[in-house]
Amino acid sequence: MRAALSKAEIADRFGDAFKLHEKTVGETLSTGIPEIDALTSGMPRGAISEIFGPASSGRTSLMYSMLTHATTHEETCALVDTNDVFAPTVASAAGMDFDRLLWVRCAGNLEHAFKATDLLLHAGGFGLVILDIGDIAGNEARRIISSWWYRFRRTVEDRSTVLMVISEEACTRSCAAVTLELKGAAEWARGNLLRQNVIKVNRRRPFTPSFNERQFKAASC
């Protein structure tokens, strides 16, 4: 199994969709959930953002929401699926546009996942790249060497890409511009994300100066 596609193969796969519209510096990308956008102003482009929390905390639902919103708003996206947990049937129910999504399956190989992410970021042209290591144990994720995160931060800082890391425990250290901790219970209800569930979102590294930890109910997001 090949770890990743070449830049030429990625461009050929997506054609015109591979070309990103020019974005202004400092622009953000919506999560697709108004309550979270109200707290964060969206995920900053040209930076790393991290969403972490235990199983059933809503991190996967938020990932589906971001991918659905981005792919249906003319963004070309890539998902690096470390443990092959992405469910196309769930994504289809959410209305995701698969023509604008590159899905990289890594069969549990963490090294392949990071190398694939590195290639995608250097290839450019993606509005959203998600590295899903949510099923990697927290103690193992914390052992990921810092040089990877610094490398990713340097790569995206002059691009219009949002690099989103999904994890069980915070592991990007100081390299993430925004880190959100999700607590509580979340579920999928008739194609709606996080419906009638209370989730605690704590922005540990604010993108804007002031932030108060709060709770919200995401009803029919």
Task: Give the topology, please.
Blueprint: H1 7-14, E1 28-29, H2 34-40, E2 43-44, E3 47-52, H3 59-71, E4 77-81, H4 88-94, E5 101-105, H5 110-123, E6 128-133, H6 138-142, H7 146-156, E7 162-167, E8 176-184, E9 188-189, E10 192-193, E11 197-203, E12 214-218
Parallel strand pairs: 3-7, 3-8, 4-5, 4-6, 6-7
Antiparallel strand pairs: 1-2, 8-11, 9-10, 11-12
Helix pairs in contact: 5-7
Give a short overview.
Helix content is 29%, strand content 26%.
How would you describe this structure in keywords?
single chain; 221 residues; alpha/beta; Rossmann fold; 8-stranded mixed β-sheet; two-stranded antiparallel sheet; 7 helices; globular
Structure, described:
With 221 residues, the chain is of the alpha/beta class. It has one domain (29-218): Rossmann fold (3-Layer(aba) Sandwich), CATH 3.40.50. The chain has helices spanning 7-14, 34-40, 59-71, 88-94, 110-123, 138-142, 146-156; strands at residues 28-29, 43-44, 47-52, 77-81, 101-105, 128-133, 162-167, 176-184, 188-189, 192-193, 197-203, 214-218. Strands 5-4-6-7-3-8-11-12 form an eight-stranded mixed sheet, with helices on both faces. The protein has a two-stranded antiparallel sheet with strand order 1-2. A two-stranded antiparallel sheet has the order 9-10. The longest helix has 14 residues, at 110-123. It is globular. The model is unreliable at 18-26, 193-198 and 206-221 (pLDDT under 50).
